[in-house]
Design a protein that fits this description.
This protein is mainly alpha-helical and 301 residues long. It is 62% helix and 5% strand. The chain has three domains: 122 residues, no CATH class; 77 residues, no CATH class; 101 residues, no CATH class. A three-stranded mixed sheet has the order 1-3-2. The protein starts with a helix and ends in a 10-residue tail after the last helix.
Length: 301
């Protein structure tokens, strides 16, 4: 996964055959987390669970030194926790951009691994639903109580705004890079509720969503290329040249200029169109995977 991030995913984002900028994003963080999970997988279950809880609930303690005046994150600290879209030179003309720090996501992956026990034969579907509902609501309540205190869990405090709606949005405006405890609580909490209430729902819509779930990595790679290719076509259609597209600073995505683009509702329509266009490919790939289980490499895609 780390190799795929550096090569296939980076090229999809940049369309830069010379890789002047290498970005470490979500696939790198998942890959690094899987490497670390591989080292602890043989520990007792309770130890693994405790380790995941300590990371998820405790990693925001690292915000304390980060908030100190004059603090400067180094390369290793950025990889571990800070990230913050910092550039590091690798060789002349080539830079490394750290977007996803791996430590918080490693904690999430560990807890996700531990959650798998609820899908074993030890728990019935009804028991699993009750547990997930309790966990989901507990995390949501935990989020609002802790967020209201402005004490811990996110490096940016909420504040009163010009009206109630914007104050509520300020409360919800929590940090994803790296994912704070509060960010994880308000995203994973509702996710547990969705798992609880939709596990046995069989509709036309859920059948389509299951296909994307079974081919998530495949879809992720494809959608990057489709969107960036469409962006490149629009860029050239506006009268820009290939040279304009490639001669971008390393901090920018090739064939994208600040200030150009579409209104939000058109972006939504484009997103929906991409999902619809890629569904048949994902469906065919899902069928191929299920009909060729003997091919071990398919499990990685």
């Amino acid at each position: 996964l780390i190799l795929v991030e550096i090569t296939i995913v980076n090229f999809a984002w940049r369309f830069d055959p010379f890789f002047h900028s290498i970005t470490l994003q979500v696939i790198w963080a998942i890959g690094m987390s899987m490497v670390l999970l591989g080292f602890i997988i043989r520990l007792p279950f309770k130890v693994i669970l405790l380790l995941g809880l300590i990371i998820v609930f405790g990693h925001n303690l690292l915000d304390i030194p980060e908030s100190a005046e004059g603090f400067k994150a180094g390369f290793l600290w950025d990889l571990l926790h800070h990230a913050n879209f910092n550039f590091y030179p690798i060789v002349p003309g080539v830079y490394l951009l750290i977007v996803y720090a791996f430590l918080p996501w490693t904690g999430v992956m560990i807890l996700g691994y531990c959650t798998g026990v609820f899908f074993s034969q030890q728990f019935s579907a009804e028991q699993r639903k009750k547990i997930f509902v309790r966990i989901g609501w507990a995390l949501i309540v935990f989020f609002f109580v802790l967020r209201w205190s402005n004490f811990y869990g996110d490096p940016v405090h909420w504040s009163s705004q010009k009206n109630g709606l914007f104050t509520f949005l300020s409360i919800l405006n929590v940090n994803k890079y790296p994912p704070s405890l509060l960010y994880l609580s308000i995203t994973i909490g509702p996710s547990f509720l969705l798992l609880a209430y939709f596990e046995n729902v069989k509709t036309w819509f859920t059948e389509k969503m299951i296909v994307f779930g079974r081919t998530a990595f495949f879809y992720y790679i494809l959608h990057l290329y489709v969107i960036h290719l469409a962006t490149t076509i629009c860029f050239l259609a506006r009268g820009h040249s290939l040279s304009d597209g490639f001669n971008q600073p390393s901090s920018r995505i090739n064939f994208v200029l600040p200030g150009e683009g579409f209104s939000l509702w058109i972006v939504w329509l484009i997103w929906l169109a991409v999902v619809i266009v890629l569904y048949p490919l994902c469906k065919r790939y899902d069928t191929y995977k299920r009909n060729h289980r003997e091919k071990w490499w398919l499990s990685y895609l």
